[in-house]
Amino acid sequence: MRSLLQRQPPALLGIDVGTASIKLVELARSAGGRYTVLHCAQQLLEPGWVSGAGIERFDEVADALRRLVATSGTRTRRAALALPLSAVIQRRATLPAGLSEPEMEFQAESEASQYLPFSLDEVALDFCIIGPAAGVAGHVEVLIAAARREMVEDRQGLAEAAGLRPVVIELESNASALAAQRLIGNLPGPGRDAVVALVDIGGHAASLQILHNGEVFHERDQAFSGSQLTRMIMRRYGFSEQEAEHRKRSADLPADYGAAVLRPFAENTAQEVRRALQRFFTSTPHHRIDHILLAGGCAALAGLAQAIARATGCAAAVANPFEGMAMRSAPRERGSSYLTACGLALRRFAA
């Protein structure tokens, strides 16, 4: 009877504000642990409205978010949003165990002040205890994250302008890793102890994360992105940027597009992924990758996963964050582009 009456955590929207679109995901979970996608939707943005540096056209993006919430059909107003990796400075520190929360906060601020390029008054600071510090008795390892306060306030203000109540501001890579972790156990071979590279290729940015047993122990922004495909379309066919982007999204392209543009893009991107993994191998003591998961709007492009597998010698698959979920609301777009939004929605059930 207790499982039948058990209440779920408060409803939560995962809102991923990207450079090309805003995505929304809302999840529920049954007593047996199966997830259901209650709401899932996307609202496209005009180029330049959002950049890596922040929200450039606040009113327009707020209007787009309002439309997204309205068309999704959700009545939930609690929201989790995220900041890009480039906007957050992270450091690990070793601190005494057993400190009270105010004492731990004071120590974290003291540590942060040593490496931040700006005043503590200008930043939003957070920390979490990872676990016991290796080789240092009576101490714990703490992850400290700091972002410019204006970046955090932009995300908060955006949600509030759309009638939402922001309750979580997460790091995009942390949200993606949370969603990807569900999928790792379903990969060929044992999920536990597998070293997995999560490559997120968005419209204007890409990132590489290395995951092992639920922990992200390496993450870097990358220089390649889907915008390179847009530029290749522009050069090949003489389209403007706006027309090239529109035709790419609608798959309205000439007959030679696959051979003349898409295949070279896939091969170039595969080489970029190979180089990113090589840099990981040379800068860390790790020299093994068991699987590659591809996320982002470009992940499901025809031939990309196969090209990456050939270039790296490692099995590559597209990450579908909705795998194994019941679908009350199905995305019209590629599921791989919802990885961050899904991870944010999963924060509802995080311990």
CATH architecture tag of the domain at 187-319: 2-Layer Sandwich
Instruction: Name the CATH superfamily classification of the domain at 187-319.
Output: ATPase, nucleotide binding domain
In the CATH scheme, what's the topology name of the domain at 187-319? Nucleotidyltransferase, domain 5
What's the count of strands?
16
The largest pleated sheet is described as: 6 strands, mixed
Which secondary-structure class do the elements indicate?
alpha/beta
Can you tell me the CATH class of the domain at 187-319? Alpha Beta
User: Could you tell me the strand content as a percent range?
Assistant: 25-35%
Q: Secondary-structure element order, as H and E?
A: HEEEEEHEEHEEHEHEEEHHHEHEEH
Lateral arrangement of strands in the main beta sheet: 10-6-1-2-3-16
Helix content: 25-40%
> How many helical elements?
10
Mean pLDDT, to the nearest integer, reads 88
Q: For the record, give the distance between the C-alpha atoms at the N and C termini, rounded to a whole number.
A: 23 Å
Query: Unreliable runs, pLDDT <50, ≥5 residues?
Result: 1-6
* Gross geometry: globular
Q: What value does the Rg take, in angstroms?
A: 21 Å
